[in-house]
Amino acid sequence: MIVAGLAATGVLAPSAKSSSNPVSAASHMPGAIGTLKPLPTATPTPAATLPPRFAAAGAMANPRASESATVLQDGRVLVAGGWIATDKATNTAEIYDPKIGAFAATGSMHSARVWQDATLLQDGRVLMTGGSDGHYRVASAEIYDPKTGHFTVTGSMAASRVEHTATLLADGRVLVMGGNNNAKALGAADVYDPKIGKFTKTGSMSDARQYTTAVLLNDGRVLVAGGVDTDLVALDSAEIFSSATGTFSKIGSMTTPRAYGTMTLLSNGSVLIAGGATGDTILDSAETFDPTTAVFAPTAPLNDAREFGAAVLLADGSVLIVGGDDGTVDLASAEIYTDDYGSVTPQTTTS
Hints:
mainly beta; Neuraminidase; four-stranded antiparallel β-sheet; 2% helix; 34% strand; disordered N terminus
């Protein structure tokens, strides 16, 4: 036999030692059964250094605090109102263009407003509700048209309110909730219908709150969290509004009690909550909310601690955070947050 001949010549001699090693030469052939020696362990590849999550963006034409910021359908951002000097409210507005990283003036509002809220309507216009003219709370509302760059007056709320929040619902209406009226935090909520230009009452929140933040989730519900009560104590509580029932229900609490911060729906469906204050402490901390688990978790901090700033989601999935104050001065600084290290590159511009 050929095998015998090979054995006689000693070619297969190493197989004779297989009694001490169960792996034979045949076991290395396709389909053979046997125990192979483990392969050498690969040397771990060092983790890549991740870029910072926040980067500087262009500065506004005017330092301002307690302003509103709204991303328009073309990707630009409307920044309006706020304090431009101590005890001086402004009716001015400007547009941020992320393509060039710069701000430019646009038409002015009919009323100076601080602590107002601004909501992008489904037709591309922006609804401004309430706020203060620097002296008194107002119930008035107006609409900005990006096609003309002008503001026009629309219907007023049933009661004046400041430090409230307004959120676009899936059906095109706007939920206005909380805020302050006659030195008391409000739990009441109204719904604005742009088709008829009127506000009507809906269910009230579980906790009266002002300086709160809210956002429409992808499933059509509205998340509202934090703020302060009538005694200006920061809240960590959160609740959900259902437009189907017109009611609010409590959920879990934030990791940090905070008011005067920003809240933004990210492209992955989670929510970024950044900055704000707890008592006299201005926060640079940020956290995210996962609507599928109803869990709040900390995330990377801001470069600048800020309260009364504004934030919007940009077309590339990053978040522009602008203005506010650090407890001492109004801020002209702006920064970019990215929720995905691998696909979103922090934007940098020259101020």
